[in-house]
Amino acid sequence: MRAYDSAQVWASDSAQVRAYGSAQVRAYGSAQVTAHGRASVIRFSPSAICRGNVLDLTVWPKTTEEWLTRYSIRTVDGKVVLYKGLNQDWRSPHGLGYKPDTTVTAPDWVDDGRECGAGLHFCWCPSACDQFNVDYKPFSHYVACKVAVADIRVYRNDGVQFPDKVRARTCKVLYEVDREGKRVSKKGVK
């Protein structure tokens, strides 16, 4: 199979995939994936054979610092920029609004180490947010959010289902970005 442009592919069992353009492939089982150019592959299985631009998620980060290092996220004054995917009405699939230039605080925050629920959830890049869209397609909007490093919680067990997201209590929504993280507009939302 060949994946081009901005295709997203889930490869499992003994699938063989060659990815081009800005395609993203998730490798499970014994899949063999080669990413060319800007294409990338995310390795979820230790038996998957992956070449090119590979993000290996077979070893999970145990701390916030390890998570930030894995995704090359730069810390400035104790804060980082993470991303949130939103529906057409600037809301997450769970209903919270994230319009640019607002502060959002989780109404259900509990600091108990759980992976899902009880907080605001963020990804390291906008395209990683798509897996959390209930329609399994790209979101209508993506926003860059400033989050305090001390506020970030990483899931600490090897049974983590979504290692490319973290949760936090609060964030400052900065501006809209495209699926690749480039700022869409310098103006806020009307």
Task: Give a verbal description of the structure.
This protein is mainly beta and 190 residues long. The chain folds into two domains: 2-56, no CATH class; 64-177, no CATH class. 4% of the residues lie in helices and 34% in strands. It is built from one helix and 14 strands, in the order ββββββββαββββββ. A four-stranded parallel β-sheet has the order 1-3-5-7, with no helix packed on it. The protein has a four-stranded parallel β-sheet with strand order 2-4-6-8, with no helix packed on it. The chain has a four-stranded antiparallel β-sheet with strand order 9-12-14-10, with no helix packed on it. It is globular, with a radius of gyration of 17 Å.
Strand content: 25-35%
Tell me about the biggest sheet? 4 strands, parallel
Average pLDDT, to the nearest integer? Answer: 87
Rg for CA atoms: 17 Å
Q: How many structurally independent domains?
A: 2
General form: globular
Strand order of the largest sheet: 1-3-5-7
List low-pLDDT spans.
none
Distance between the termini: 43 Å
Instruction: Give helix and strand order, one letter per element, not per position.
Output: EEEEEEEEHEEEEEE
Number of helices: 1
Number of strands: 14
Percent in helix:
under 10%
Secondary-structure content class: mainly beta
Structure summarized in a few sentences:
The chain has 190 residues and is mostly beta strands. It has one helix at residues 64-70; strands at residues 2-3, 8-11, 16-19, 24-27, 32-35, 40-43, 49-51, 54-56, 79-86, 102-105, 120-123, 141-148, 165-168, 170-177.
Layout of secondary structure:
Layout lengths: L1 E2 L4 E4 L4 E4 L4 E4 L4 E4 L4 E4 L5 E3 L2 E3 L7 H7 L8 E8 L15 E4 L14 E4 L17 E8 L16 E4 L1 E8 L13
Parallel strand pairs: 1-3, 2-4, 3-5, 4-6, 5-7, 6-8
Antiparallel strand pairs: 9-12, 10-14, 11-13, 12-14
